[in-house]
Amino acid sequence: xxxxxGQLLANDLYEVGQLPISGKCCQREAGxxxxxxxxQQCFVRAGADCKEYKRSAPGxxxxxxxxxxxxxxxxxxxxIDGSGLYGSTRHEFxxxxxxxxxxxxVESCRYCxxxxxxxxxxxxxxxxxxxxxxxxxxxxxxxxEEDVFLESRRIITATIQHITYNEFLPLVLGQETTAKESLRxxxxxxxxxxSSSIRAGIYNEFATSAMPAFWxxxxxxxxxxxxxxxxxxSIAALQKSLVPSQTNxxxxxxxxxxxxxxxxxxIASYVHALDICARRFDQNxxxxxxxxxxxxxxxxxxxxxxxxxxxxxxNAEDIDLLVGAMLEDPAVGALFGPTITCLLTTQFELLKxxxxxxxxxxxxxxxxxxxxxxxxxxxxxxGLLCGSxxxxxxxxxxxxxxxxxxxxxLDCTQLPKFDLRPWKVNAEEEIHLExxxxxxxxxxxxxxxxxxxxxxxxxxxKQELEERKRFEYEVWRAQGGxxxxxxxxxxxSFSKANLAALSLxxxxxxxxxxxxxxxxxxNSITRRKRQIFNPNQxxxxxxxxxxxxxxxxxxxxxxxxxxxxxQCPEPTQQCDANSPFRTLSGRCNNLRxxxxxxxxxxxxxxxxxxYEDGISAPRVTGVTGTPLPNPRTISTTIHPDIxxxxxxxxxxxxxxxQFVDHDLTxxxxxxxxxxxxxxxxxxxxRQTVHPECNPFPVPAGDFFYPEVNVTSxxxxxxxxxxxxxxxxxxxxxxxxxQNTHFLDASMVYGENVCLSNKLxxxxxxxxxxxxxxxxxxxxxxxxxxxxCKSRNGLCFIAGDDRASEQPGLTAIHTAFLRExxxxxxxxxxxxxxxxxxxxxxxxxxxxxxxxxxxxxxxxLPRILSWNAVNLYGLKLLPQGYYKDYNPSCSPIVFxxxxxxxxRIGHSLLRPHIPRLxxxxxxxxxxxxLRDGFFRMDVLLQPGIIDEILRGLVATPMExxxxxxxxxxxNHLFEDRKIPFSGIDLIALNIQRARDHGIPSYNNYRALCxxxxxxxxxxxxREIPTEVINRFQKVYASVDDIDLFPGxxxxxxxxxxLVGPTLACIIGIQFRQLxxxxxxxxxxxxxxxxxxxxxxxxxxxxxxxxxxxxxLEIQGDMQRAAFDLPSNFLNPRVPCQSMPQIDLNAWxxxxxxxxxxxxxVRVGESxxxxxxxxxxxxxxxxxxASLRITDCGQLIRQWPKEAILRDEVCNSQCGIYLTGxxxxxxxxxxxxxxAPSRVTRSxxxxxxxxxxxxxxxxxx
Length: 1259
Fold this sequence. Notes:
Layout: H1 2-13, H2 36-39, E1 58-59, E2 71-72, H3 83-86, H4 90-96, H5 117-139, H6 145-173, H7 175-178, H8 204-210, H9 229-234, H10 254-264, H11 270-280, H12 295-298, H13 303-312, H14 321-326, H15 338-353, H16 370-377, H17 381-387, E3 393-395, E4 409-411, H18 451-479, H19 487-493, H20 499-532, H21 542-549, H22 555-558, E5 601-602, H23 631-638, E6 645-650, H24 652-664, H25 685-688, E7 696-697, E8 717-718, E9 736-737, H26 746-749, H27 753-759, E10 781-782, E11 795-796, H28 807-830, H29 836-864, H30 866-871, H31 895-899, E12 912-913, E13 927-928, H32 944-954, E14 956-958, H33 966-969, H34 985-995, H35 1001-1007, H36 1025-1034, H37 1043-1048, H38 1060-1075, H39 1092-1098, H40 1103-1109, E15 1116-1118, E16 1132-1134, E17 1153-1155, E18 1158-1160, E19 1165-1169, E20 1172-1177, E21 1180-1185, H41 1191-1197, H42 1200-1205, H43 1207-1218
Helix pairs in contact: 1-5, 5-6, 8-10, 8-15, 11-15, 18-20, 23-34, 23-36, 24-28, 28-29, 28-32
């Protein structure tokens, strides 16, 4: 595809012609040509191998009276204007049109008849023209056929310009080059870079010695007569080469002809062009005294090619420009060497700067509206080919060959379609549909559930609660608790409850115990009825009972104040709807339901809980009545330790997944009396230590752990403590989320005001530790970390208590702490009048947006695939505001997401945390994962944060599959002095899901539109046969498979890492996180939104830039931190070359604006130039170009010089001042602009889970 697009541009930008002569040049010796003037047009070498060539027709400069040297005529226009499609003459233009609905005759296009890829691409573009024309005619039936044709042509031309600069040039020139202002496209607004003072044109060197390089990349298949748009997408281009692929009828290969034409055109030799380009880019080197001996030193032509050149040319200064440039090694991240890159860059800068009709320009009346520009900017080549109906599938990046990851083949329905709604004139405002909550059907009350039964149950629950408290106290007094630094204590500290969570759980227990007593009573009544009246009496429906229980109010029976005590109480005043800042706890995000999504509230559920007793007991029995398999047996059988390194993604995917998980979920577990940590390792600990202990034994025959403790002789068990309950009503147990339920960077700032105050200073900065040796700041150190194992007793603290869990996590926490403080200093520079409170909250707001953008823009597409991202509505907007916030949808995190689905990172872990130097070389020793838990003193070494971060972005992760490293299945939190003291993380995942009442895997298959399995073979579409065989050895029924092992063993979706069930749960979760968050960074709510300029800056954010900015020594890094470095697709580049947030977008104008030569107060307007009007706002001047309807009046009001200096005026009225005639063919544009339009919001009453089975990767 890439060389075909290059040829499309060549056809659009230049064409040489020849003067007619009476014969063939190679036959002139035989008297074929006698006229001397005709002989001058021949440039051939006589002899048997003569190849026919007529010199390019000479041209002349209309601005110069006399010709000094021969210059060649360019028959094509010197703009990217679609002239290769539509023609550059009136005759070609008219011959192409059908004069029906603005259509064109594809067969009449000159280049459409060319065989191979070139013709196929031209045909696809013109077919898209016809499709656009039909739609324009439909939405604007009052438009004339002429209007439809011209607007369709204008759209296609703009599309070619956008694809060229947005997709084509970054690959050809490298992103470092296209990031320069002269080539960079504008975001969110119009461009103002047009200059009429710079002369337009095509450089001869570009036409004859740069663009022909694309011909060398054509594979033979793309030159075939049968080549189609499908082949354009699927066939790989060749490496650039001087070896001819085929020759024309005259015996010329395309490259040989280009070299010969370069000599005809008088193109300077390679070494002279090298000198020009070197000076242009401020590089060292000169053309003087170039010889074959020093050619390799002065250029990057490899030695073997220099040897070949020495055999061909007598002198190094004779080397043809195209030949020398083609032999250069490519620049990093670019397609060609520096010389061709230089020539292409120079030309494409000129094309953009000198085109008055450039699609981004705001020069009335030819400019597009901002809404129309938004549609054009969303265009991709893949979407264009799909829109032309030439293909049914395409990869998202058409110029890059498809792969199994982010560039996997998508159905055309999943690719962006061109949105023509902004072109609809006189559009009526459409109705905005509100989401309407549907009240659940009320169940008929169970008649046995009498007030007397409930009251008796509550009394028994009170007694049981008192007995439980006495038991916990007696155990603590007799046994105390275990050390937080022990393996079991370390595991417990990873889910450490704060005082508020413990208080909430205490108030929840009475509801749980009362619910259990009610169920026992109802079961007893049912058994008596069976014995006395009817042996066939049915038991009550468990789901019906739980629904009924949740409607019963027992507050009067409980008595006293059962409201949990808050460790850090928040103000209870009315929410401030006008504040742009989130609360720390998440309260007041939803103005209708202020506590939705608040920290210390319970999780939601996708499916009803399945407890053993219907209320709270963990699942232990399968559907056949046999016990569920031991979690350790499942772990060792289904999740063995087999390394399978990923070929594309870096270990940063794993680390960022954990970082995000800690933003969204923290499920606290029970503590003992006086906040002690009970020892739940003894197999009888539930009876002897704490009623919430939930250990499970080491199974017989385990390959690593002994079945019996060799020291005590007791059965060996894995410790497990149950999660805290949080429900505040009768019914099944629900677990607490100690974090906020929003993607709000709470792992950086904390989930309540009290924690936030510990972490922040008074100047707006976050508190930090001065590096004890040298280097940038570190996280704050604390001596009150009971689980800390550092030799000095100090561990780091952050917004989430787990920040010191392992060095990789601590390193990324450190990067975001530094990012906050960096932003504070930047904001202080642009707004010196802001106080510390303002600086803190604005920086926190930006960091929260950075996290959201990185998750949705970089992380989720790699995890889920573009198919799933599109189906779940997770694709970010390239510009404009998100309009689908719904105050009626709940943001609460799903229990299934927290307890199973988002534990995917456990499969990505590697045994070591790698370290890399600034030269990207391994630093020994790497940090062994088992030795790094809560041991932070190693991070006080100079430069080690940099080494860890570089290692994370440059080291492959483990593939996300069923295999898990033994570091976390056999050695998690292990004390090396105590054999077999480690814990199995995967077995804990399974045990935790059963503790939470998570239904089996098969239930989620049905929820997510997969086939509900009735037999083992029904799993074969999603799960490999050998894995199914292992499941059969462990589970008695397909309905018993736990969610985590079932979902983790599915084949991944095409282009993603997870299978369809995990993609479903993760997809719907992040859909809610975006749709239900009032402070979502793209939202259009006037009170909380970022300005358009600020939003444009936030869309530049990448994780690589955040990491790079906060290294001690920046150096180089790849642009995509989640992808491994690649010399072409993901090269390492200097950190400063990556896009940078410009904090001037946050500048607050309290004293007005400088508009032209005037100081203008906020709210007032001024004219900085005759045809530009600006309004001073708090964000700075907001300017717009004026459409001039009366040039005479403009001339009377403004001086001639001022009008000519203003490009907007000059473009519209300059002809009246200079007397020049309009040059070139430019059909009259349709007058008038469409009014603003309102986009319809679809009703989101019930989200229908999409079917992901078509996107499962093949075997």
